[in-house]
Specification:
This protein has 361 residues and is an alpha+beta fold. It contains five helices and ten strands, in the order H-H-E-E-E-H-H-E-H-E-E-E-E-E-E. It folds into two domains: 99 residues, OB fold (Dihydrolipoamide Acetyltransferase, E2P), CATH 2.40.50; 188 residues, Beta Complex (Beta-clip-like), CATH 2.170.270.10.
């Protein structure tokens, strides 16, 4: 039953309406530990600094208002500088204070100077919000990496504003079909190749070209479907025709954009041209090209959507694709009904590329 219980903990996840302070206090009353809330065996009875909230000087002594890790805000205390053995948190405190001043200056507002005896309430409020945001993003990052099934790591970054993790974002590894759509992941045949790269394989059976070269790069033109080896094939996981199904091999960063586009994705490592980057699984000059992929589900109306690099993409570069790119089997935009009754509201594109059409749709 212990194993089954552990498995259920991984599967069932529901949002909690109780505040973090209340949950931390409850854990301590019941002598329970919870890593995600900062309550550990180490600090269940002891105190560990989580972040610094405020600053003041009294009788020539410097004091910092301390938020204790795993303890509610009601237990915050003023501590003299000599008691703080946390140089990194002190540095972060002053970095946030400086960032607040920089942001206010950008808004061309008048910044009242601190009197060196205490912080302005607005500055202290910003520092606390930034610290809480940092912790929330760290928890989100840890959750994303627990849920992922691919090799690459996922980092989260927001240096733009105080926005925390998006409430309507749910990380998934597999496709989630819309109501009324049934994905039948069962194929009737598979290859028996000893070398899928050299022998007639699943692509040949489907009447298309083998999609990859020996360097695992895409070699077929856009619009051509990809048929990878499936669960009935006798080849192993190292088969050269199993690229998309292995998931992304790159470490990526979900980051907050600075021009109102919300959250974006950038690569943390160099990606060679024509390489598989990631799948688009959901309910712009672009550097990714869309390809339709078929593995266990061969219904041509319901392909998996894979994104391949169109050129070398360098570390720190945002990953983008053209929303109007057409994969094989897609309906041409020329054949769609553009009558006034069917006309949709156009969404402005903010990619900033020279070749941008100005709209996503």
């Amino acid at each position: 039953m212990a194993a089954a219980g552990a498995e259920l903990q991984k599967v069932w996840c529901v949002p909690c309406l109780v505040s973090l302070d209340t949950l931390q206090e409850f854990c301590r009353q019941e002598k329970l530990t919870c890593k995600s809330m900062g309550v550990t065996k180490r600090n269940l009875s002891n105190y560990e600094v989580e972040y610094l909230c405020d600053y003041k000087v009294e009788k020539d002594m410097e004091y910092y208002l301390v938020k204790w890790k795993g303890w509610p805000d009601s237990t915050n205390t003023w501590e003299p500088l000599e008691n703080l053995k946390c140089p990194l948190l002190l540095q972060q405190f002053y970095n946030d204070k400086h960032n607040y001043s920089s942001q206010v200056k950008k808004g061309k507002a008048i910044i009242p100077k601190d009197n060196n005896k205490a912080l302005k309430p607005a500055v202290a409020e910003y520092i606390v919000k930034k610290a809480k945001q940092r912790l929330a993003l760290q928890r989100w990052q840890e959750e994303l990496n627990r849920r992922k099934t691919h090799k690459g790591m996922i980092l989260v970054e927001n240096t733009v504003d105080l926005q925390g993790p998006p409430l309507d974002f749910f990380y998934i590894n597999e496709y989630k079909p819309a109501p009324g759509i049934s994905l039948v992941n069962e194929v009737t045949f598979g290859c028996s190749c000893t070398d899928c790269f050299l022998e007639k394989c699943c692509p040949a059976e489907a009447g298309v070209l083998f999609a990859y070269n020996k360097k695992q790069q895409i070699k077929i033109p856009p619009g051509t479907p990809i048929y990878e080896c499936n669960s009935r094939c006798q080849c192993g996981p190292d088969c050269p025709n199993r690229i998309v199904q292995k998931g992304t091999q790159y470490s990526l960063c979900i980051f907050r954009t600075n021009n109102g586009r919300g959250w974006g994705v950038k690569t943390l490592v160099k990606i060679k041209r024509m390489s598989f980057v990631m799948e688009y699984v959901g309910e712009c000059d672009p550097n990714l090209q869309v390809f339709n992929v078929f593995i266990d589900n061969l219904d041509t109306r319901l392909p998996r959507i894979a994104l391949f690099s169109t050129r070398t993409i360098y570390a720190g570069e945002e990953l983008t694709f053209d929303y109007q790119m057409k994969g094989s089997g897609d309906v041409s935009s020329d054949s769609l009904d553009h009558s006034p009754a069917k006309k949709r509201v156009r969404t402005v594109c903010k990619c900033g590329a020279v070749t941008c059409r100005g709209y996503l749709n």
